[in-house]
Write a structure and sequence with these properties.
single chain; alpha/beta; Rossmann fold; 2 domains; five-stranded parallel β-sheet; 10 helices; 32% strand; elongated
Length: 390
């Protein structure tokens, strides 16, 4: 498929005829691309400092600068852009690292539409493109004293390279020896409230006047490291995560009886009588929700720790083969600065030109976007890629 002829920003602003309507890249000498979706043209302009977005609305004949959400791509030597469908653009950075060259600009996804409901303005959102799919995160809940922390520690110790914890956010001040980004992401209340409003958190709660929560980004960081994220949260937090877009496995750890749970709480010797009675009241309500709410996919009874742990491993399909399959380096695509794009159905063809000086062979990368998952404010996963030498 051929490349459409280029036109300038002045052509757009003057309302001249558009030479394309199918989303082909229009290159300019200033690292700009213009991509048409419907009656809007999206201009993505790169500089040494940033990558900006402007929109030309053909029906009004006006340019606008949208609100841009999400952590966008860093500047590069240039970029190509392509309309995947009516709701997002594929942006490929030139000269970027293989793990950082694929991005998506969402223009009409569900996330963008939800954000538009709260403001009377044009909104777009960035999400990073990732080849392949991540393991489904594991949400583990249960009442205090049931042993879920011990079970998680056993998993983390036996499968150190496979599992990872997301680092929670909090608005409280760090205590002595606590490190930002390790124990918590310590943040200002106004910042966290804004990100909660922008749906960047899977769950959050107010505890003793401070906000605590699990951000989508924190879970994505674990997945980017090719690890399976474990979330240790209460039933209310699990309910929030279930109501969101995260695909996860929800597991509730249940005590064999309230009597045994009370024995375990008292054996710890860390709480007052009033605190124990409060935990038992909360536990009774949590167990009822865990069994009847429909939030959880699986319920495990922790009568004997060893048996419960073995049942947890079986439930997660943990064996030598799954661990071995997890030892895969992050995948990306290595592109030269000069390349061209074309599209047939759900496949993007990236022509990288000659492989080297004096060589006639060409390198063609095929990017399949049939099974995209996720998106802003996290990652767009599910990309499949293959390379064809000709």
């Amino acid at each position: 498929m051929g490349e459409a002829p280029a036109f300038t920003a002045d052509d757009l602003q003057n309302g001249n005829g558009f030479p394309i309507s199918n989303g082909f890249v229009l290159k300019s000498k200033t690292s700009e691309t213009t991509t048409v979706i419907g009656d809007k043209t999206y201009l993505i302009a790169g500089s040494d400092e940033s990558i900006g977005v402007e929109i030309y609305n053909k029906s009004t004949g006006k340019w606008m600068i949208p609100i841009v959400l999400g952590k966008g791509p860093k500047p590069s030597k240039g970029h190509s852009a392509f309309a995947i469908n009516e709701d997002r653009l594929l942006v490929i950075k030139k000269g970027a690292s293989p793990e950082d060259c694929i991005w998506f600009l969402e223009v009409d996804t569900q996330y963008v539409r939800e954000q538009k409901k709260t403001v009377n303005a044009e909104i777009v959102a960035w999400s990073k493109g990732v080849i392949g799919n991540a393991w489904k995160p594991i949400v583990i809940s249960g009442p205090s004293g049931v042993g879920k922390g011990t079970l998680i520690s056993l998993l983390m110790n036996e499968f150190q390279s496979m599992f990872g914890f997301s680092v929670s956010h909090t608005t409280r001040k760090p205590r002595e020896l606590e490190k930002d980004g390790v124990h918590y992401h310590f943040t200002e209340r106004s910042v966290m409230e804004k990100e909660i409003k922008d749906r960047k958190f899977l769950e959050f709660a107010s505890v003793h006047g401070n906000l605590y929560g699990t951000s989508i980004e924190a879970v994505e960081v674990v997945a980017d490291a090719r690890k399976r994220c474990i979330l240790d949260i209460d039933v209310q937090g699990a309910r929030s995560v279930r109501a969101g877009s995260l695909e996860a496995i929800f597991i509730f750890i249940c005590p064999p009886s309230m009597e045994q749970l009370e024995e375990r709480l008292r054996a710890r010797g860390t709480e007052t009588e009033e605190q124990i009675l409060k935990r038992l009241r909360n536990a009774k309500a949590e167990i009822e929700q865990g069994k009847t709410s429909g939030i959880f996919d699986h319920i495990l009874y922790n009568d004997k720790l060893d048996e419960c742990y073995e049942n947890l491993k079986k439930l997660l399909g943990l064996d030598e083969s799954t661990v071995a399959n997890n030892q895969t380096a992050p995948r990306g695509i290595d592109l030269p600065v000069d390349h061209s794009l074309s599209k047939i159905d759900s496949k993007i063809f990236i022509d990288c030109g000659t492989l080297g000086s004096g060589k006639a062979s060409k390198n063609l990368i095929v990017l399949d976007v049939s099974f995209l998952k996720g998106g802003a404010p996290g990652r767009t996963r599910g990309l499949d890629v293959c390379t064809v030498d000709s």
